[in-house]
Amino acid sequence: MPQEPTEQEVGARSLFAAPTLEEALFLMAETARGLTRAHQATATLAPNATRPHGAVATSLSKTYQAWGGYSVPLPAPRADKARLRLEPCGEDYGASSRGWLSVTLPGGVGSIQVFDPESGRDFTEEDGVALDSLVDLAGMVLETVRLREENAALRRKLRQSEERFHALVRASRQVVWTADARGAITQVSTTWGDFTGQNHEQYSGWGWMSAIHPEDQARVADVVRRTTRVGGLYECEYRLRRRDGSYFPTLARGVAVLNDDGTAREWVGVNTDLTSARPAEGELERLLREEQAARTLAEAAEQRAAFLSEASRVLTSSSLDPKATLDALAWLTVPTMADWCFVDLLDDAGVAHRRSVAHAEASQEALAREVRGYPPGATGSNHPTTRVVRRAESVLVDDISEAWLRRVSVSQRHYEVMKEVGFHCIMSVPLLARGRSLGALTFLAVRPSRRYTQADLVTAQDLARRAALLLDNAILYREARKSVLLRDEFLSIASHELKTPLTPLQLRLQSLRRETQKGSPTLPTATVSSQLDVVQRQVTKLSALVNGLLDVSRISSGRLTLDREPMDLAEVARDVISRFSVTANQAGCPVTLDARDDMRGSWDRLRVDQVVTNLLTNALKYGAGKPVHVSLSGDEAHVRIVVEDSGIGIAPEHLSRIFERFGRAVSERHYGGLGLGLYITRQIVESHGGEVHVHSTPGQGSRFEVVLPR
Predict the structure, then answer these.
(1) Are residues 472 and 325 in the same domain?
(2) CATH number for the domain that contains residue 48
(3) Does the keyword Phosphoprotein apply (predicted)?
(4) Exposure of 566 by Cβ count < 10 A (0-12 exposed, 13-18 middle, 19+ buried)?
(5) What is the pLDDT of residues 79-124, one digit of tens each?
(6) 325 and 469 housed in the same domain
(7) DSSP letter string over 349-393?
(8) Which domain holds residue 178?
(9) More confident residue, 175 or 397
(10) Of all residues in the chain, what percent carry a pLDDT higher than 90?
């Protein structure tokens, strides 16, 4: 059974179905009030060139509707985001508003504001997130309504053009007619009937030919057949019979009204008396051309608006799985907008992947599999959409040549695949979100009648903006889930790690307490000393864990400061190795130091000590009982710290994440730790203007290298 649509999906569809801007604003206000459980919500559009007074819509809860008797000041959105409050006008409502929350619409065109949360609470961060999501949707809604209103304006213009045309026809003595794609008359032509004396039944279909002089009929029929077959302007001279039975020379001219594929849908024409000049002839032909252009423009605008509306529905009603949604979007564009459609996306490492390929012909699936193998390459690649993906620039080529294919192909096989696809136009637009490129949408035209124009490029860019919004939301959702999982994992690890030193600490203290309760006047010094040594080690370990957490907090809030001073790096390294001598012996990892060059510079002593400590701790933990070597070297501008072990090493797929917060390449169950040491190390090194790198082979050890400017 199909699933019932959610309330959010129903709300999204209602927003996109709004017939006017005012109705859309009201639905936005209604939705905002429902999302935040507010008593009042107001959607405001600032004045612009087309709406000099702006627009405002307000939604009230039933409670506020019952109270009544107050007003709300609604100025245009302000940069200072000053707090707005409800101003009571009635005496029965004396309480001031408890809260206000405002978000700005895309492009700064207006804002959505909510006032007075229900149940005595204040607005929360979740309310802000909900409004931000609504604002993302509002941008597409406003654009859809704008297109709908623009389409209505074009239709009004078309009706006015038709009315002017028919008025001129009625006032003119010209004979005006309309025929179908084959040349048969299907509509009533009053001027034809008035002139020839034929009624509708007599001139409909091919009956109009009987009013032409018998000697001209065969020639006229041939011209009609040839023109309707090959297209172009219909033009033919012949003798036409008047109502009184006499014939007069006439010039028949007609223009085609075209379908989307370029074929004629109908013909509109006029017969001109060649025996006298007709002042209205030029005006009538001009109106014919204007009517055809206006009708074509209106139909194209309506089709674009319908397509974008359907695309918005697909995007807003989809799940947060970008792959499934982009597949649906790619197939939606074929064959409405393209004969082929590609979707290329950049991964976290900046590598482009072809995620979706849609094509009009089912028999081309084998070719489509080959097309998937040619995504955009690195910067500088000749691939036709590399510039779109890498530099966020749109590409429109409306006449593909052999030389162009040769120039952009990345290999001979790529050239052959493009030739086999057989496209003659290409249009590619970037997927942009928050100022960065996520990938590209590419459209290919194969049918000869399909040509891409600047209007098509604008439609493609609009579609790409909507698709990029979906992708960005999906990425943010994925990152949020990842952050939650990392947080939960970290809390689990942190609680375990913090308990580890507390357990022996508690046992030693309990042991000392039992000794004191035996009644002996003194305790053996050796006993107390050994117990206190254990207590001190556990306190030191606990202190290190807490300090690590504090460092993460400082780094996250941007409060990690440096206290630079002249120092000798070799002295720091010897001190750290000395402190870890016992740990190194217990791990079976003898540590050697090689420091021959002058290692003096200006750094934060405490933080550099922390870097060496973290790298050495890491080497001893994963060194697998094998020697660890620390080497220091430098030149006039930089110093280099290298810590090498011959332990378990790091798998290639984990190298990019070991410097992340809580990142680890092994199970915490076997090796413990908070996963913060290397993250803090990188932050300290980079705050000094340096770099840290790792080279590792699984089973052969790791080499960590830090470069610091003096």
Answers:
(1) yes
(2) 3.30.450.40
(3) yes
(4) exposed
(5) 333 333 333 333 333 334 458 888 888 878 889 999 888 776 778 8
(6) yes
(7) TS-EEEEEEEES-GGGHHHHHHHTT----STT---TTHHHHHH--
(8) 173-277
(9) 397
(10) 16
